[in-house]
Amino acid sequence: TYLVELEPRCSRWIQMTLDEFNDLQASLPDNDKIIHNGYDYELDDGTKMKEFHVDNHERLMEMANEKYTFGGTMSVRAPPNSRLVVIFGQDEAIFSENCSLPYQWVDPNGKRVMLPKSNGASTMISAFQSREYGFGMEITEVQMKEINAQRKDKHYTAEDGADEAALKVNGTTAKPQLTSSPFIQQLAFGGSVYWNSDHMILQVCDIMDCLKVIAPEHEYVFLFDHSSGHAKKRANGLDVKNMNVDWGGSAGMDMRTTNIEERDGYIGPYHEENNPWMVKVGQTLGHVYPKAGEEDSNVFVPPSPFNLTATAREEKEFDVEVDIPIEKRKERSKHKKELIAELMETETGRKVGITNLWKLKLPDLQEKARGVGIDIKITPTTKTKAGWRGRGIGLLAAAYARGWVDKENLKQYQSMKYDDDGNLVKKYSLQYLLGQCKDFQDEVTQLEFVCKMQGARAIITPKYHAELAGEGIEYTWGFLKSIYRRFPLAKKKGKANFEALLAKILSRDNITTNLVRKFSRRARAYMETYVALDMNEDKEMKDAPIPHRKIEQLKKVMKSHRAAIDFDKSFVLSFVAKDGFEPLLSVSSDRAKFIFRTFFFGASFVHHLHNATMSK
After folding, report:
1. Which pTM value belongs to this model?
2. How far apart are CA 613 and CA 531, in angstroms?
C-alpha cells in the first residue's frame, strides 16, 4: 500500500531529461553512481525523460530539495487527476528531567557529583512529522485566526467518534480555541495522568481542523505504530472478544449492526434459508435483543435465544427483582453509578455536574457524598435477575444466525475450544468462526474510524517494527534525545529550566525538514528490504541481502517497543556529530578520567538493511 499505492501520489519524485541524467552521472564519483535504472518515458515532443525516487541517491534528494518546496514532486505514473497525498507519521516519546549521558567527570580524588536516582519531572510528547512540512507544522497567526473561526461553537461529535474522548479529557465536547500548533503536544504526566487513546483522537481532530484550512486540496494519511492505544477497537465495533458465549451480562450490549452483503465470507455451511433464527443475505444483523417496543423492522435480530425451550424463553425474557436470602445479604460500598445518582439529587452534585462527577475517582466521590450526608454503604436486599431482552445475543446466537453452528453438536461449542494437545479446534471455536467473517475481519480501529470520518486515512504499521513507523519519527526521537542527554543536569533542574530546554530541543531550527526527509528515507529503506525479502521468501535465499530468518530472529529478540537509538544507534548519532553535538570522548588531563557506563544503551544491536533497495 505505502510503496505502490501511496508513494506515486506523494511529492517524492524528480524528473529530468536523459541528457541531464547523463551529465549528473558523469559528475558523480565512480564509487557513488546512481545504480537505479529509474523510469524512462517520453514527452509529447519526443524528449527522452527519466524519473527517480528522491531516495534513490543522496544527490537526487539534494536536487529535489533545491527544486521543489516539498522536496519532490508527484510521479508521472500517478493516476490521472490525482490529488497530492501527504503522509504524516506519529509517535510519542518521554523526556525526563534527569535524563543525561551515561558518563561523568571524576576529580583527582575520585569524587564525582551524585546523579539523581529518579527521572524527575517527565513530559510525554506526541508529535507528527512529514516530508512536506517537517517536524510538526508551522501555523501563522493569520492561519490560526481562521482555524479558530472555523472551530468556534463547534463540538467533537459522536459521528466523528470523538465525543466520548472529549468528555473524558476536557469534560466537554466543545472544541477549545487553539493557542499553538496541535502537531506537537505535550502532557506532563505522573500518577494517574498519562497520554492515552482519547488524547490521540482529539489531537487528530485538531490537526485535521488545521489542515482543512491550510491545505484543503491535499489528501492526508497518518501512520501510527501498533501500540495498544492506536490499535484500540471501536467502542461499538465488531469484536468477538467483547461478546459472551451466551446472552446475559453487559458484554456486546453496544455492538453495532452489520450488513450481510453476500454468502461468501458471511454465511456458514449450516445456514437454513427459512429458519426464523437465521439472517438472510442482504439483511442487517443486530447483536442485541431489543427491548419490548423498541424493535426495528430494518434490523434482523433473532426473535429469542434459539437454544432455550419455549417455556424458558418466556420465563427468562425480562429482568426480575428477586429477594436475596437473609443469610446472604452483605454490606458493600456503593458503586460510582449509585453515588452519582444520589449526588445529582443534591445542590452540590448539580453544581459539579454529572460529567465532572463521572471523572472523579471513587474515593473522591465518597468524600463528596459524606459531605452532603449520603451513606456510602448499602446492604442490598434484592438483586436483578437478568432477562435476555436488552442483552447482547452472544457468540453462540450470532454464529448460529449466520449458519456456523451445527445444532446437533451444540454442547461442543466454546468461546475457544482446544484439544488435549492444546491445538485449537476451529470448527467448535465461536470466536474463531465469527472472527473469520468478512465484516469482523474488516472492522477498523477507533483511530482508523476517527481518521476516516475526518476525511483522512490511518495506517497501523506492524508490531515490533519501530524502524518502519511514522515516517522515520523514531529516528527523530533518537536524534533529539541524544542532544538532550548532552546538556548538564543543571540546565534541566527545576520546572522552568526543564520546560525551557525542552522547547529548545524541539525547535524546528534543531530538527530541520531536510533532516526529517533523511530519517524518512531511512525508514523507507527498511520497507523496501522487507518487501524484497517477502518477494523472495519462496526462492533460494542465499542471494538475498539479509536472510529472512535473521529478520524473524530480530523480531523475537526485540519484541518490545524499540527506539531508533536501540536498533540504529550509529545512524542516529552520525547526525548528532554532523550538527556539532558530539561530546568530547577523550581527556587530555592526567588528573581526570572518563567514566562510561555501557549499561545505558543496553544491548546495542545495530543492523543495516538499507543497502538493499528496489528499483522504482
Report:
1. 0.76
2. 9
